[in-house]
Amino acid sequence: MPAARESLLDAAYTALQRRSWSTVRMVDVAAVAGVSRQTLYNEFGSKDGLARALVRRETDAYLAGADRALAEGGLPRLAEWTVAAARTNALIRAVLTGCWGPRLPAPPLSAIPSTSAVPAQRRADGPLPSPADVVAVVRDRAVATRIAPGAVKGEASRAHQECELALRLALSCVIAPVGEGGVGRLVREALGVTSSP
Questions:
Q1: Residue 45 has pLDDT above 80, yes or no
Q2: What is the pTM of this model?
């Protein structure tokens, strides 16, 4: 039921854009998606399960975008993508910063014990990534794009530091937006890069 699942997640995301998660009703999400409320419960188990699946989907979309940004323009582009994604998507901002506002669902990061017959991948009751987990994943993916196979330890260590710095600068710009030139300029200056990639 992948199409229904995506429709339900889309409906939940749209509802969250319009009002606080605490006022989002499962029956309304199901109606917008064009399925029964029972289908919604069968797919996610509960409202908390829906929230966890929504957070996981948005996190996966951020990670896919981070991979594209790295391929397109290296660390400066990754930093720009991170800031743009957090600016336009409150869930991504919360995932990256750990700041879950009262309008957002705040599903616990740890796994939720469940006796549901619904398969775990559909319930989304496994652990959610913490901000540190997400940063580590993106940093490690960025490092992998910057070091050549067989690189010496010093090169790998330098790449690790540069990627960590770029992400930390991006996250600081999520919290306190930067002016002219944006975060890409900050990253290029911090790394001593004169052009993109």
A1: yes
A2: 0.86
